[in-house]
Specification:
Strand content: 25-35%
Largest sheet: 11 strands, mixed
Shape: globular
Radius of gyration: 21 Å
Oligomer: single chain
Mean pLDDT: 92
Helix content: 25-40%
Structural class: alpha+beta
Order of helices and strands: EEEHHEHEEHHHHEEEEEEHHEHEEHEEEH
Number of helices: 12
Amino acid sequence: MSPSSPLPVDAGDALLVGRLFDPEIGGPAVVHVRGDRLVDVSSAAPTVSQLLEEADPAARLREAEGGRSWDLAEVLAASESGGDGPVLLAPCDLQAVKACGVTFARSMVERVIEERAKGDFAQANAIRGEIGSVIGGALADVVPGSPKSAEVKRILQERGYWSQYLEVGIGPDAEVFTKAPVLASVGHGAEVGILPSSEWNNPEPEVVLAVNSLGQIRGATLGNDVNLRDVEGRSALLLGKAKDNNASCSIGPFIRLFDAGFTLDDVRAAELTLTVEGAGDGYRMEGFSSMREISRDPADLVAQALGPHHQYPDGMMLFLGTLFAPVEDRDAPGKGFTHKLGDRVSIGSPRLGTLTNTVTHTDKAPPWRFGLAALMRNLAARGLLA
């Protein structure tokens, strides 16, 4: 596979599970990548959530008898072109979709800048020069919740630089929020939505963990935690409006299940790339995010989100945050980066593949209509709820 392929570079050794919308059955099929085919394994696991509850999901997937199958290349092409045939969906279904914010030191500084600029990108550059070096230097090598972090907090408070974003960035409690409703996430090739009113926004390339109801991390995939910097910058209480909108959450292309050849340690070492290509204007931006620089261990983030204090009976998908924060000007000097309609966004990692989406406005993206009731009716009609 090429570095920009939706499949991992070692796809032949990877256990990849996803979901496909089949117009013939009017609903989703759980599919397993087997060579150049997508094989329906819904009879073994009618939902991805149920598969991850198995004692050994990898073994269950390997042993599952296949039903119908589709040409993988044709499905990928249809997904990326908006075709009418079978297309990929987000590879999760009944799981809650949660996200962690401010988990990288560099992005902490940018969140503080957003807060101080009150969502006005015109002020961000001046503020970045004023406080970036002070806060960035203070955050170097700080372990969240440690005695050193408490001392850094005291110093920054005395200097008037403390922020709610620094509180969740280096304090004992991580920021964990609900990114999207169950079944609302879009998959590879779909459009991702930004509010028409937003003038300062960006993609967020992230690793997303697939976690079952017991808090066991079963695999990983990629995600775009679409971010409206001007909306959240006006007030942290607008986080829901900034983060949870039609088509604003993209996950995929497939969940790579953990096995002997791919474990949580591989996630901890994952390197992510981001490419944004403008529609017809020649614009291109490249970014990077390294999981090696995350402030909190992924297992700790899972424990903060799910445990005796909070249960998710159908499991959860957990975005781990991003190192990436675009500051380069796209148009006018000082304006920084913001999306334009038609931007093609690709988020890649060698062992997870590449997730690609196209930017549109939330009111122009296909409306979300297939919810939990529709899924239950569809599975029942297919005899998969017995």
